[in-house]
Amino acid sequence: MNQIFPAETAAALRLNDQHVIATGQTIQIVETASIQGKSHEWLATKFPIHASDGKIAFVGGVALDITERRRTEEVLYKYEERFRKYFELGVVGMAITTLEKGMIEVNDQICTILGYERRELLKMTWAELTHPDDLPADEANFNQIVAGTSPGYSMEKRFIRKDGQIIDATISVKCLRLPDGTIDCILALLQDITERKRAEAALARSREFYTALMELFPALIWRSGPDAKCDYFNKTWLQYTGRTLEQELGDGWVEGVHSDDRAGSLKRYVDAFNIREPFAMEYRLRRHDGEYRWILDQGRPFLDPEGNFAGYIGSCMDITEHKNAQWDLIKSHGQLRVLTTSRS
Description:
Radius of gyration: 41 Å
Number of helices: 11
Oligomer: single chain
Shape: elongated
Number of strands: 13
Mean pLDDT: 86
Strand content: 25-35%
């Protein structure tokens, strides 16, 4: 044995042989030895071999190299430990369920989200927790996993907590399959998005409210996106120009600007847009009756809820009467100056 293994390893292996001789019993142990500088492990079965007089003459053995298996087990153990830590970390609600949708294991976070104790959830199914109106879509997605046509799915759905409160959540579901392809279990990740949905609903209501205000506002209101193309005109604008929203969108509104003012007004708008500065300009816009009217157009950049540049919003007023009054005043001053000069 010393010729095969280092002295220390040979001594350890010999101790196992001596144990078999001393006890006369078969043993199964894991033995470790270094071969060509690499550590190997064997699952060894050692047994006594008796001579004709009944005494132990030799120790026989069968050894299976389990080095790779042990390494695989160690890797799997590390992954299992990592998964266990993640499972209990509480970042999201997690549950392991059966094909029948019964809970096998749940973490603390999902108990908190749904308001049930762990022992209660382990006796329940997803169908009992899901809002009835969302159950058909959920079951359809789940059935695709069972049929093997989908590896998993994510969706928003409502759950009913133990206290009767309805919450909104996102759920991501994946199946874990055995080597033969059959489903071992189902992993579900659950995140409560109730507050986010409420905030989104409040924001939508706010947008609807202000959009309704802009629709009724007496001034001509327009809005453009980050690409400088107009994506909104209020009802007042459309009634004033006599054109449809589809006609005005993008750069369509420029068609209504007087040809003598078109290039200058468009340049003024684009220059201000490029440096994100407010602007004010005057140009003539064709009214629904075909008359060109003087417009004071004022625009300024606006930001989205996250603070990012989202485009420009502006309002226009018909200043034709004001312009005419100015011209009349200028004309009268000119006439007065001519009269004064002639008299002197």
